[in-house]
Every structure is written in C-alpha cells, then in structure tokens.
Amino acid sequence: MTSTKRMYAVPYFLWLLLFVAAPVLLIVYQSFLGINGQFTFANYTNYFTSATYLEMTVNSVIYAFIITLITLVISYPAAYVLNKTKHKQLWLMLIILPTWVNLLLKAYAFIGIFSTHGSLNQFFAFIGIGQQQILFTDFSFIFVATYIEIPFMIMPIFNALEEMNPSLISASRDLGANSVDTFRRVIFPLSLNGVKSGVQAVFIPSLSLFMLTRLIGGNRVITLGTAIEEHFLVTQNWGMGSTIGVILILAMLLIMVATGEKKRKGGEKTR
Amino acid sequence: MKKRVKWSNFYLLLVFIVLYLPIFYLIFYSFNQAGTMSQFTGFTFEHYRTLFADTRLLGIVLNTFMLAFLSALLATAIGSFGAMAIYYTKKREARNAILSLNNILMVSPDVIIGASFLILFTFLGLHLGFSSVLLSHVAFSIPIVVLMVLPKLKEMNDSMIDAARDLGASNWQVIRKVIFPYITPGVIAGYFMAFTYSLDDFAVTFFVTGNGFTTLSVEIYSRARQGISLEINALSALVFLFSMILVVGYYYISQGNLTKKQRKIRQEQSEVADLL
Questions:
Q1: How many interface pairs between A and B have CB atoms less than 8 angstroms apart?
Q2: How far is CA B252 from CA A200, B15, B242, B256, in A?
C-alpha cells in the first residue's frame, strides 16, 4: 500500500536480510574458502575422504539418536500422566521452570555430582561398588544431555495430548476397544505431531551441544558442534568449520523434512 | 484402577525429582563450609559474602542484565512491527515465505548461529565486543517476539481498524491507539521471552564476544572448566531465585492476558452498554 504504511517494518526486513539471509549465504561461501582465503573445494573433499570426519559425524548422529530416544521414552509417559493431573497447567509450569535455569549451571551441578569424589561416587562406595569413573564418559554426556532436553520433549507431547478431543477416547471405549487398543490406535497416532516436534526440538540441538561435550564429555565425545567450535575458535580454520556447519544445516533440514512431512497430509482438522 | 493412578503419579514425581535434584544440589552446597561439592561439613554464608565482594563477577552480572534488558527492548520493537508487516502482507505465499525465513533462527542450532554471525561481523569489519554481542542477541530474539505478537494480531477484529480509518485516524494513530493496545499482552510476552533468551544464551555469545566483554554464561563456562568454586553455587542459588520470580511474573501475564488498562476499558465498555 502507501509507502508510509510500510516504513515501520524497515528494521524488520533489514534484520531478515542481514541476520537471516546473509549469515546463511556467508557460511556457505566460507565453506569454499581455504585457509589462505582462496576458492577451493578442498574442505569438502577433505571432509568426505577423511575417516576422522566421517566417523565423527556418524558418532554425533548416533549420540543424538540415543539422546532423543531416551528422552522420548522418559517424556512420553510423563506428558501422558501430566495431562491427567488436576492442576496440569501448574505442573507443566514446574516442568518448564528448570529450563529457565542457565544450562551451564546445570552442567556445573553434574560436574559436582559425577566427579571422582562426588556424591554419586560416595554413594557407590557406600553400597560397596567402589569408586567409578563417571565424569568424562559417554554415559555422563548422554545422561546430562537427556536431562537437559527432557522438558523440551514433554512440552510438545503434552500440548498434542491436551488438544486431543476426549470424546474420541470415549468413542473408542464405547466401540469396545480396551485401553491398550485405544492407546495404540487412537491416542498415540493423534499425539504423533507432538512427538515429531519434540524429536525436532531435541535431535537438532543434540548434534551441537559443544559445551556439554567439553565440560561433561571431557573431549572424549566429539559432536558436529564441538568440531565447529574447535575449527572456529581454536584452530582458526574457518573454511573447514563452515563446511561442517553446512553439513549440520543439511542434517537439520533432513530432520525437519522427515518430521514435518505428515503434518500437511493429515492436518485437515488437527488445529 | 486406583492403584495404576498411584503408580503414574509416582512416575511423575520421579521425573520432577530428577529435574530438580541438580538445581537443589547446587543450592544446598552453596552453604557448605568445606570448599567442595561432596562433603557437607557445616552451614555458612561465606560463599555469598565472597560473591558480593567479587566486583568483577558482579560487574559481569550487571553486564548480562543490561544486555538482556537492551536486546529484549530492541528485539521487541523490531519484532512487533515485523509481526504487523507479516500480518498485513496480503499475498498468502509471500506471508508464508516471510514466516519461514523468520523461523530459520528459531530452529538453527546455536553453534551455526554463532559461527555464521562471527563470519558476518568479521566480514563487516565490526569490532567484537559489546556491540557484536548485543546485535546477535537482538537478532536471535526477534523471531520469538514475532511468534508471540502474531496470534494477537490474528485475534484482533479488523473492523476496528476500518472504523478508526473512517473516523479519520492516520496510519500512526491507528497503530498507536488501536493496534498497539490490543497486542500489548503479546508484546509483553515477547519481551519476557527475548529477555530469557538473552540471559540463557551461551553458545552464540561465546562465538561473537571478544576479549573485552563477558556474560555470566561465558564466565561460568570458563570457571567450570577450571573446577569447582562454591561462589558459582551461591550465584546459581540467586539466579534460580530470580528465575522463579520471572516465571511467576510471566505466569501472571499469560494467565491474565489482559492488562489493567484493557480491563478498565472493557469494564467501561460494558458499563456504556448497560446504559444503552
């Protein structure tokens, strides 16, 4: 319409251009630059021929997969039970509350709990297992990452369950389905959208939690995020870092397509 | 049937315990006389005293809050107008395209945002420090503001704007007197979210901050890499308390959804209706 009407949105469109479009283009551009700033495909050939990089990528995906799976297994029943409680909004608030505490403080707490002379080891010594190395292992990394991601999985599943029309469950029971059938054929399929957005919200960050791999995984666990941080801030090889970044972006798009596809097909009346 | 309900509640309780245990663990040991997080030898406020004597750390806390306050303010201003622009984009495809662009930063991993902003700032020749951190925080907070404001705009009755125009209001008057009062709850919710995004962020800040400027998250990270210091525990207790206050505040806003002024307006309107 008139030009004055659009004036107010100029900063927003500037932001879209400068902080959304430009960074994506720049990281792709940078991924084709060698360490001296010349144009090259070397980063990509390096990446795809080096066993270290490929192994790291596969490991990162496996870690993220395990974290997502455990989070889902813990969160689904929790969201289900949560939906049945009386003051559910209050309980949901209490689930969300820990996410407002800084992630690094939570990681720091686990350093105390898991360390060699920490509380868990004291407990182990007390019941006679003896001291174990817990911090800086795969277990500690997966445990802490799962701990941090649980609320982000519970929220979307809870929302999906809450949106569900309760008369559908009554209908299913009236038509003679037992509770297992009702769950399998009615409740679970209807909550699938929540599960998908939960998986999205957990899997993608799990690929890139570099601070946890540093603090809890003790550099033993290397994810895509750790590799990017290493290349950008430690070895200063921005080209290679960007290449891994592009791979991470592609992985992210893949996940989003895989978990977002059905929404359109089956989304006639879900919203 | 009753027994199953009990078991399920037990499970939920377990999840809650696991979620809160580390946080209370931190707070508990902040009162520990011994300097470790393993053996509780006696109660003390000593670590709180060191915390309040540590001017460098307090300066960082102040920086972090100033940053969150400023970045949330800027992001809310830009994002609210952005939401209006999206709402008034007539073509459906264009609107969806802008919205997906808007959401890119919401779904991108922090590391990607941090790395790409670092490239951007170096490309632009911007000095890394407070300004680069502020710009990044504004940038990654804008999309959440848009997502908070947009539903409020959708709820709004468009004929109110037509009415205002018919009565001779200019564009700015329409925005100020009609649209803005209506979307205020969404704007406030957006501000809160932007504020917490900024307070919570570690990864992006870690990438784009230079030597001169540090936020709380970055400071905790570097201290945690060196080992345990109960000063951090004391700090975390205070941060937790502050988060609680924020949550309660946010809860009231999202519950009430109507500001006092609006309630008053509604009340006046109903009184007028009664008179008629």
A1: 223
A2: 29, 25, 16, 6
